[in-house]
Specification:
The complex is a heterodimer of chains A (278) and B (360). With 278 residues, chain A is of the alpha/beta class. Helices cover 22% and strands 31% of the residues of chain A. Chain A folds into two domains: 92 residues, Elongation Factor Tu (Ef-tu), domain 3; 130 residues, Rossmann fold (3-Layer(aba) Sandwich). The radius of gyration of chain A is 18 Å and the shape is globular. Chain A starts with 10 loop residues before the first strand and ends in a 5-residue tail after the last helix. Chain B has two domains: 209 residues, no CATH class; 139 residues, no CATH class. Chain B contains twelve helices and twelve strands. In chain B, strands 3-2-6-7-8-9-1-10 form an eight-stranded mixed beta sheet. A four-stranded antiparallel beta sheet of chain B has the order 5-4-12-11, with no helix packed on it. Chain B is globular and about 65 Å long. Classes of the chains: A alpha/beta (278), B alpha+beta (360). Chains A and B meet through strand 4, strand 6 and strand 13 of A and strand 4, strand 5, strand 11, strand 12 and helix 10 of B.
Chain lengths: 278, 360
């Protein structure tokens, strides 16, 4: 991949489309302004990019689109701080900056022939969506695919259209839950970790991939361990405060590992070795 | 490469020749920082060290990365700071062995080998700036370079390493750039005899014996690995004011922030030094903060230098310059920190019951 000589300089990109997902989350479809930038940006599921709103700042976001659907990038972003608020004000057509892709990626190549169990909570489905769609686009290479996803309320479920599409597939099983239902919600009510325990997946030949709020991850890891999953079978992706994205600025480390350069994807065995407190 | 000697009264002439090609930087008269000078006679001072290490000449406290302006279709970059902005030919004179070693450690951090990316600004500045080191005649209070494995007092990590031998300097040219520097002093240098080399070694050994306190810099890696949950972190961190002086003045600390400054319809993006001792250093927008507790922040600073970076690079990131010891406003002392953990590791079995107070 041709590497820009100055890694701190974002490439100009345009917000093509803004899709509301939940009351506080929107998905931004982004296209590089220049063809060579688009081609140079070869990413894999699980990687992230630094997105710039010039004058406001730069923040790291997981790429939620899949490279199997080329030509654009998608970021699903919850309104939280300065950069995310500035992005949420956009309606499409705005110019932003993007640099990356950064970090390691989900080792989807190593999962061939395995069953996959994705466990997401809230906006934590954003990084999983990239690898889920990547695996669905290479469906023949994997065994059963199960997706467990939960959010605080039906309105807080992200990617609603895609959830419906996943539910319709006969080669994939979607298990949805919400912490609290509403008048129209006919599905399950409850947290993600007890749903996992109830589904009681056998660990044989399975890779479990999880991302969500810290408390959910902690309980899911505990639940998977109780089900007999080995640490190496459990994969997650981490969030830390980042600035440079290239392993220089020194703030995103967990022990010796820089989440931006060595992560954000780790299996549970690696995290334990780093002394992570998950 | 052969070693040389140069009479002290000829050193100013050598520097003045070099001054035709380079902007020469040496410790300022008040020993605050490296400053541009043409006072070649006092550039090589035998004692003291600058309060601010020379890292700022390669990695400035604040540095504009790019400028932008709001155009018709949103903001766009108007100018990227070129790498060559840090390429003015400079020569650093009188860098202490500790600080020379620190630069070689920063070289690692900013290299492609370290994390897959090269830092263009640092690299450009470093490759345009040769370094002439000078062995200290007198250590300062709090210096412990003699214990720092990265510091070679006899042959520091410089292009030319000078050692004061009384009436002359021993000069070792340690790189091609160093050879050229010596060549610029044609007629001023003589070849070093074995006796001069022995005197150089003796001077280094003397300084080592005066600055070595037997601190276990190297072994801290294994010690700390077992003590992440120790209550000692909390005890030691209690008096810290979180002012960040220890890291801003540290010659190997390199953490930085990147921020935008909006000015009217434009603005600029800059990077600036940052420190893990600030509460918001690792604070995420979500409110999560893995290092909310001062004990966690002290652990980050100490373990980053003595465990994590050694794990990554096989080198301890402390050069024993003593700045953090001398200049901490509340007298925190990294030597005492090391001693406390060495003691914690040594005799008693781990006190598991006490570990819960250490935060997380």
């Amino acid at each position: 991949m041709p590497m820009p000589s100055n890694p701190y300089v974002p490439s100009p990109a345009r917000v093509e489309e803004v899709r509301p997902e939940t009351p506080d989350t929107k998905t931004f479809k982004v296209v590089f302004c220049e063809d060579d930038c688009r081609e140079a940006f070869a990413y894999r599921p699980g990687q992230f990019a630094q997105v710039s709103v010039f004058g406001v700042g730069e923040a790291p976001f997981s790429i939620t689109s899949t490279p199997t659907r080329p030509g654009y990038l998608e970021f699903s972003i919850k309104r939280m701080g300065r950069v995310t608020c500035a992005l949420h004000e956009m309606i499409g057509g705005e110019q932003i900056g993007v640099r990356g892709p950064y970090g390691n990626h989900f080792p989807a190549g190593e999962w061939q022939g395995k069953k996959l169990l994705f466990i997401g909570g809230g906006i934590g489905l954003a990084p999983l969506r990239s690898v889920i769609n990547y695996c669905l686009d290479n469906r023949a290479e994997y065994g059963d695919i199960d997706i467990i996803y939960g959010a605080r309320s039906p309105a807080d479920l992200v990617f609603k259209a895609e959830l419906k599409a996943w539910a319709r597939r006969d080669d994939t099983t979607l298990h949805l839950t919400v912490d609290a239902g509403d008048d129209e919600w006919q599905g399950r009510v409850g947290f993600v970790p007890p749903l996992l325990t109830e589904l009681h997946p056998s660990p044989a030949g399975v890779i479990a991939v999880t991302c969500g709020p810290p408390i959910m991850i902690r309980l899911v890891l505990q639940g998977l361990a109780e089900l007999g999953f080995a640490d190496e079978q459990i994969v997650t992706t981490l969030e830390m405060r980042m600035k440079c994205g290239i392993g220089k600025c020194g703030r995103c480390n967990i022990g010796r590992s820089y989440v931006c350069a060595d992560g954000p994807v780790y299996n549970y065995a690696q995290l334990k070795q780093l002394g992570s407190e998950l | 490469m052969p070693d040389y000697v140069i009479a002290k009264d000829k050193a100013a002439e050598w520097l003045s020749r070099l001054g035709e090609k380079y902007a020469i930087y040496a410790p300022g008269a008040d020993d605050m920082a490296f400053e541009r000078t043409s006072d070649y006679a006092s550039a090589l001072r035998p004692s003291g060290n600058t309060r601010r290490p020379p890292k700022e000449l390669f990695f400035p406290a604040s540095q504009t990365l790019l400028t932008f302006r709001q155009g018709d279709e949103g903001a766009e970059i108007t100018e990227v700071t070129p790498e060559s902005a840090s390429c003015e030919p400079r020569l650093l004179v009188g860098v202490r062995p500790c600080d020379a070693a620190a630069l070689s450690l920063l070289d690692l951090v900013f290299s492609r080998e370290y994390s897959g990316y090269d830092d263009p600004y640092y690299r450009a500045a470093r490759s345009a700036t040769p370094v002439i080191s000078l062995l200290c005649a007198e250590p300062l209070e709090g210096c412990f370079c003699g214990d720092a494995p990265a510091v070679d007092l006899a042959s520091p990590a410089a292009d030319v390493a000078l050692t004061d031998l009384g009436d002359r300097y021993f000069a070792e040219a340690k790189s091609e750039a160093g050879q050229e520097l010596v060549a610029a002093g044609e007629g001023l240098f003589g070849e070093a005899a074995d006796a001069a080399r022995a005197a150089r070694d003796q001077a280094a050994a003397d300084l080592r014996s005066r600055t070595a306190e037997g601190l276990p810099l190297e072994g801290m890696r294994e010690t700390l690995r077992e003590l992440h949950e120790s209550p000692v972190w909390r005890e030691l961190s209690q008096k810290c004011l979180r002012c960040g002086v220890c890291s801003f003045l540290c010659p190997t600390c390199h953490c930085f922030d990147i921020q935008d400054e909006a000015l009217g319809s434009g603005g600029y993006r800059y990077r600036c030094w940052d420190t893990c001792q600030f509460t918001d250093f690792a604070l995420m927008t979500s409110g999560e903060n893995p290092r909310r507790d001062p004990a966690e922040r002290l652990k980050q600073r100490i373990c980053h230098k003595f465990e994590y970076l050694p794990d990554r690079t096989d080198t301890v990131f402390c050069v024993g310059c003593g700045r953090c010891v001398r200049l901490c406003p509340v007298g925190m002392d990294v030597r005492e920190t090391m001693a406390a953990f060495a003691e914690e590791a040594a005799p008693a079995p781990p006190k598991a019951a006490d570990a819960s107070g250490c935060g997380g």
